[in-house]
UniProtKB/TrEMBL annotation:
Keywords: Coiled coil, Endosome, Golgi apparatus, Lipid transport, Protein transport, Transport
SUPFAM superfamilies: Cullin repeat-like
Predominant location: Golgi
Family, as annotated: Belongs to the VPS51 family.
A UniProt-annotated Pfam family: VPS51_Exo84_N
Gene from which the chain derives: VPS51
Record lineage: Eukaryota, Metazoa, Chordata, Craniata, Vertebrata
Assembly: Component of the Golgi-associated retrograde protein (GARP) complex. Component of the endosome-associated retrograde protein (EARP) complex.
Name assigned to this protein: Vacuolar protein sorting-associated protein 51 homolog
Amino acid sequence: MAAAAAGPGPGSGPGDSPEGPEAEAPERRRKAHGMLKLYYGLSEGETAGRPPGSDPLDPTDLNGAHFDPEVYLDKLRRECPLAQLMDSETDMVRQIRALDSDMQTLVYENYNKFISATDTIRKMKNDFRKMEDEMDRLATNMAVITDFSARISATLQDRHERITKLAGVHALLRKLQFLFELPSRLTKCVELGAYGQAVRYQGRARAVLQQYQHLPSFRAIQDDCQVITARLVQQLRQRFREGGSGAPEQAECVELLLALGEPAEELCDEFLAHARGRLEAELRSLEAELGPSPPAPDVLEFTDHGGSGFVGGLCQVASSYQELFAAQGPAGAEKLAAFARELGGRYFALVERRLAQEQGSGDNSLLVRALDRFHRRLRAPGALLAAAGLAEAATEIVERVARERLGHHLQGLRAAFLGCLTDVRQALAAPRLAGKEGPGLAELLANVASSILSHIKASLAAVHLFTAKEVSFSNKPYFRGEFCSQGVREGLIVGFIRSMCQTAQSFCDSPGEKGGATPPALLLLLSRLCLDYETATVSYVLTLTDEQFLVQDQSPVTPVSTLCAEARETARRLLTHYVKVQGLVISQMLRKSVETRDWLSTLEPRNVRAVMKRVVEDTTAIDVQVGLLYEEGVRKAQSSDSSKRTFSVYSSSRQQGRYAPSYTPSAPMDTNLLSNIQKLFSERIDVFSPVEFNKVSVLTGIIKISLKTLLECVRLRTFGRFGLQQVQVDCHFLQLYLWRFVADEELVHLLLDEVVASAALRCPDPVPMEPSVVEVICERG
């Protein structure tokens, strides 16, 4: 273990010099290991495994830089028993072998790198040797060249000064020659139409002629040039006034006139006047396309024509004006802005007229593309003429069209809803007219709901084009905020749902108005539709809208709960009105049957009246109809003899008291008093109680209204003995069938009991029919 730890030979001892080859070998290995660690970017702790927090100067640290083998061995001999020393030796041998294996692996893995590095160093030695030889030769050649250059400069010094003087004289002579030839050059340029070249010649000579005009020869040249320049100015003005050439040629004429010293204010006015003529021609062309006689092009072609013609021309005018009359300052800029504002306003008016013709179309794709091109075209003039406000005006037009499209789609959704209601009316009336079965209420409800939802999705997809990323105006604040929140969500979706609820509630008007002609089945269908909207559709549609239109506006919006509450209230009103309408239909049959019969002289009853059978049939039909759209509901526990209870009630002690021999016309006050006392202790029946969203509640409300009407009609009539018995038979028949439709059969018992009791009170000879006979008649009926 000592040999493995310290590494000295067999003859070495504690006093041997550490400079020996055996002592240097571990140090070399440690340095090589450190270099490898630096190459691979490993820290000392990562490779050596030294515990964190250990002292790096500890001489007993095997992994430290200051490790001393003798101190380490002494420490082991002092502190460790023999068994631990043997374990330490074994562990150290294992670590040495592992380190040797790692070193060998590193050498093998990096063998190619070592070979490549060796070859590179060898080549660098050869290349640097050649480079040193070439640098020596270059230095020698540069010294020779410097010597020759100095000798040539010394030889040509005198000649160089003479050549410089002669070159100056030659340049002066050429300038004088140009001045003397200037009139003829100007004349030739004017004749050839090279006005730009003539102005450049004039500009080059103007300062010299002004400086030396006191000399006769230069004065003559100046006079000739002024005459020629005046003729040049006249021709340029004539060419500018004719206006036959395009805007670039006219801008060139103005630029040349300004270079010749013409007044800028006058040229500015003339330039804008000529530009106005060209742009007004473009506006007249656009206005002609809006005329009634020729077929107007589509809106995309119209905006392309306006963008390439008027807007392009306005950009050319603005850029040329700013280049030519930049020296005019704020006054000139304001004049240009007023010019662009006036003509731009006329152009915007034409565009709005054309866009107004698109309000009736249902497709937004072509309109949005046209608005996108219109907005893109006005970016350039908007940047050139910021003071004119063209870009802001264009954005306002786009926003106004977007609002109008939202209104158009809202009207379309309302029309689609009304169309669905018309289809439902026709489907409900068709079976009666054609004598065949039509679609059921559940199918009609599904068709209406899917049709409305598909129209909503189509409208959302159509208006979503205004916020597409590729559209130039979609990043405007209005389309990122107000359009999404107040326009689409509130104005279109919430507005339509509220409009649908209002339209549905309009069918709840009093009879004689719109509600009088509304089929009851339509009221039932609309109530279920609004209830479905409250439970699912409202939340789904608003969530879909919020996902498609990422709102970046903090404006308050209608909560989902508020809209659901409005839909539920509409459903409740419709269902309540349905109950009233159906109850009114049955009530009218019962009222007519009571009012048109002579109850004093009627014959002894042999069967149930037909109207009572019709009441049961209509109630059964209503039960089937409501069951198609609403759930059953909760009933109270029914007795096992519900069909028999009516008659047993009639023959109870209360009825026996009514029909007792003591009940004679001579004692009316006692009978009325008894009846009133019994009413005080009987349960009060709320005829128009709130209707719940289930079949039992609906049928209970209809039956309560019908029986209450029968009771009130009976109270207005006087009955003979057989009339009372007929009422007794009819009420028993109704009790046999109506109890199963209501939530609490006691309600039917109480109302029918009141009917028979009221008839008995209004009968001079109240002799009831035997219960067995009543049962036989009702069973036969």
